[in-house]
Amino acid sequence: MKNKSGTTGLNIVSGTPVTEKNKGVVVLDEANLFYFTRYSNADAAILITGDKRYYICDKRVSEEAGELLEAYEIVDAGALSYAEKAAELAKAAGIAELGYEDERISHRDYLTLSNSAGYVLTPSEDEIRALRAVKSEYELECVRNAQAVTDAVFGELLSYIAPGKSEREVKAFIDARMAEKGASPAFDTIVAFGANTSKPHAHAGDNRLEERDAVTVDFGAKKDGYCSDMTRSFVYGGACEEYVNLYEAVLEAQKTAIANIKAGMSGAECHAVAADVLEARGYGEYFTHSLGHSLGVEIHELPALSPRNPLPVPAGALTSVEPGAYIPGKFGVRIEDIVAFEKDRVYNLTKSPKNLIILG
Questions:
Q1: What is the pLDDT of residue 4?
Q2: Which pTM was predicted?
């Protein structure tokens, strides 16, 4: 059937996805599958139709899925692909409008869904993003637990790091400590020494820590399917005046943002709070990225605290607040916490200290 813009009426009631009568949505993306089921398995699909929910899989996981997913009817895909089985079920259920993940679906699965007669195919990515943008209390608790791991590992890192250690060694230490605490890296851990700290997403290499080096670490734990994220910048053996001034400017920008942003402000307005501070301190040109991003099941979600986002941040959103300034060839500073948005404020889930730390 012809693709058109529309809405599936997808929503969450008491933690369970539902759609309007005669409408449905098919989910194939791994992150969205986990979001709706809290079950980690990439080889599946779910079909949500009215108040019915189908989990389409194969015999490798059907027994486990049946034990864990009480709200879903487990359906064996048999010889069909997951998309083919979802289309078959949708037609049998009399679905007139079927939503799909228009920005995440493979071309093959799109053709499978669009070539099936009996329903109109409707993009639903925006609806799913809107649902995921507002975190439930369960999700916030999962992120708190992941961030607690991140905070604990940072404390251990400060006792471990020393001159002669390479960026790779420090990265391995961070990742191993997260694993020991029952978590995994939420993304590729960033460790940078010296001039490498001027690169916001530097890759850890064989560069070894020297006296008076700047250090930036950006890492987060993933626990129970949810991500945390934190950046800290510090120095070993002493800091020059230029670094201290840069650090104080970034810290002021972050504290000012956390004290003033709230639900209802646009992403662009949130970004501007920190950007204005750095501009006033003479570092505006060195702030080269947005103030923050949402996170949850994935490390980058929406909404973004970006100058390109004119939309209001909803109450219940969870984002990073991570201003930074990077002077090419010298050093950079980034300080990142994660905050939850409320009507009149945000509250901070990050517990690690962020005063300027000078080790050694």
A1: 39
A2: 0.91
